[in-house]
TrEMBL record:
Pfam families: HTH_18 (PF12833), Response_reg (PF00072). This is DNA-binding response regulator. It comes from Gracilibacillus dipsosauri. It is found in: Cytoplasm. The lineage of its organism: Bacteria, Bacillati, Bacillota, Bacilli, Bacillales. Residues 2-119 form the Response regulatory domain. PANTHER family: HISTIDINE KINASE-RELATED, TRANSCRIPTIONAL REGULATORY PROTEIN HPTR.
Length: 542
């Protein structure tokens, strides 16, 4: 640390400097000044930890210097040098935060005692200051992280009640009302516009974030109204509330300037997108999926503009995933090796998606992950390593390699060819026998399927068949039949308007009350309650 000595008499400064140097304290430099103005210049331009100053000096005295230090809120610790007749003045200087005072003539031992005490105080305060700064930096970093994490959760579709949502906004110090109108804007860095590794990419993203925040801050009253996150696919998304001071047109101009500045300063190409006005508490997930899906469809010729994403009409967003689970479901068809029917089922859905042209990346991912789970299940049952399927690894590494229905068709065709070949290689083994059993049960589920009828179909003794099946699958045949009936019942409840009695007949129960009792024991509610609860949930989400 540095020390500044101030006295109008040089011999006093010489004496003090000799004494201080003889103490062998950890002092970087000793500065001198013979007047208040010179002392203040040194204090203003250098980091002075301790000041020793006389009170009585010509023109300006020590109190003038104290007032300057006090008004500027300098952290310098002050030790007054005072004669006996000035003792009362020294006492009144305590209001300026004076650490201590020394009476002239100054004894070396007393000077050393006061300096050591003051240096210890400075060291402790510096340590506390560093800890505070570190905590503040960590807090701000963690706050940015938590803000981004919360926003990405909302983008991913996680729902919160109004009370929970508002509480989270307050905890993260985000000055954005729960029901506010806002826009979502996203930036995607073109990977072919720069050469570098993932670390370079992170640096570019931070630079993009800083430039965006700086420019948009001009149109936003507080930084607490700019909310952003970086998703796992290196999209930089930010949410901006709209109000009287930042209209939609103004934000469009600002975003255009952001794009131009980023590309000029960083010498990279970016894709920039802007949503229409949306409601914060309701539309973040659907908007995010539209932005991601739209970005994947962009051509190279169109990335010079700020793309405007139109809000998707929820009424034109069909649930394609539902058709995959309708009886017979895709997994049911694959399990009994009805590959042509399975592919036709998927193909019909994908053809409809292409024709409707209102699907999002979410629809593609739903279908892909559903097929992926079916494919993994069948591969495991056949004791085959599905990692040998090259497109499997590609999809795991980057799910966004699937960006069109045709991509899914190609993926599924290769997967089913692979599984079909596996089935042909194992036509004489136990898996084929299980497939025969499941096919028979599926075909005759409306009838009274029994162990004896199944045994007759596969030419095995019922007792042997029952034990063998339990050993190979881990569950009984009756349990499989029950699970299949419940699954089909759920599908009929949610996808048709059929009466409970009719559904009971279709799944193999002649007595409706018996079916209702079994269903309630399994799902903890009656079929009608189940249908009503699921329908109300869909209405709530829409």
């Amino acid at each position: 640390m540095d020390i500044l000595m101030v006295d109008d008499e040089n011999f006093v400064l010489d004496y003090l400097e000799d004494c201080i140097r003889s103490f062998d304290l950890k002092i970087n430099a000793i500065h001198r000044a013979t007047c208040v103005d010179d002392a203040y210049d040194l204090l203003s331009n250098m980091s002075i930890s301790i000041l020793l100053t006389d009170i009585r000096m010509p023109e300006k005295n020590g109190f003038d210097l104290l007032e300057l230090i006090y008004s500027e809120e300098l952290p310098t610790k002050i030790i007054l040098l005072s004669g006996y007749s000035e003792f009362d003045f020294a006492k009144s200087a305590i209001q300026y935060g004076v650490m201590d005072y020394l009476l002239k003539p100054i004894m070396p031992d007393e000077l050393q005692r006061v300096l050591v005490k003051t240096m210890e105080t400075v060291t402790k305060e510096n340590r506390k200051r560093k800890e505070f700064i570190t905590k503040r930096i960590n807090y701000r970093q963690s706050q940015h992280f938590l803000r981004g994490q919360f926003l990405f959760e909302l983008f991913q579709g996680k729902s919160y009640s109004e009370k929970e949502f508002t509480k989270k906004l307050a905890e993260l110090q985000l000055d954005i009302p729960y029901r506010s109108d806002c826009i979502v804007s996203s930036i995607l860095m073109k990977t072919n516009s720069f050469r570098g590794d993932s670390q370079d990419s992170e640096l570019y993203l931070k630079a993009i974030m800083n430039i965006t925040e700086e420019i948009l801050h001009e149109a936003i009253p507080t930084r607490e109204q700019l909310w952003y996150c970086i998703d796992p696919y290196h999209f930089f998304h930010f949410v901006i509330p709209l109000n009287l001071t930042n209209s939609d047109d103004l934000m469009k101009q600002k975003l255009k300037r952001v794009k131009q500045t980023i590309e000029a300063l960083l010498n990279i190409r970016i894709v920039m997108l802007q949503s229409e006005s949306i409601q914060l508490n309701r539309d973040l997930h659907s908007t995010y999926m539209q932005i991601v899906n739209y970005t994947l469809r962009l051509t190279e010729q169109k990335d010079t503009m700020v793309h405007r994403i139109k809000n998707l009409d929820p009424s034109r967003s069909p649930n394609y995933f539902q058709h995959l689970t309708e009886a017979p479901s895709l997994i049911d068809l694959m399990e009994v090796a009805r590959w042509n029917e399975a592919y036709q089922k998927v193909e019909a859905i994908l053809d409809k998606m292409e024709k409707d042209a209102v699907f999002t990346q979410q629809h593609l991912m739903e279908i892909m992950y559903y097929f992926f789970s079916c494919f993994s299940y069948i591969s495991a049952k056949n004791n085959r390593q599905h990692t040998y399927f090259p497109e499997y690894i590609t999809f795991i590494q980057n799910p966004f390699t699937i960006s069109t229905p045709q991509d899914i068709k190609n993926w599924i065709q290769k997967g089913m060819d692979y599984l079909s070949n596996t089935e042909n290689e194992n036509t004489s083994n136990k898996n084929f026998l299980i497939a025969q059993i499941h096919a028979f049960i599926s075909k005759n589920i409306q009838q009274n399927v029994t162990l004896h009828s199944i045994a007759e179909h596969v030419y095995l003794h019922p007792v042997y068949l029952s034990r063998w099946y339990k050993k190979e699958t881990g569950s009984s045949i009756s349990s499989y039949i029950f699970q299949l009936r419940m699954k089909k019942a759920v599908t009929l409840l949610l996808t048709t308007n059929k009466k409970i009695a009719d559904i009971s007949q279709e799944v193999g129960y002649q007595k409706t009350q018996y079916f209702i009792r079994l269903f309630k024991e399994h799902f903890k509610m009656t079929p009608q309650k189940y249908r009503e609860s699921k329908n109300s949930l869909e209405i709530h989400h829409s």
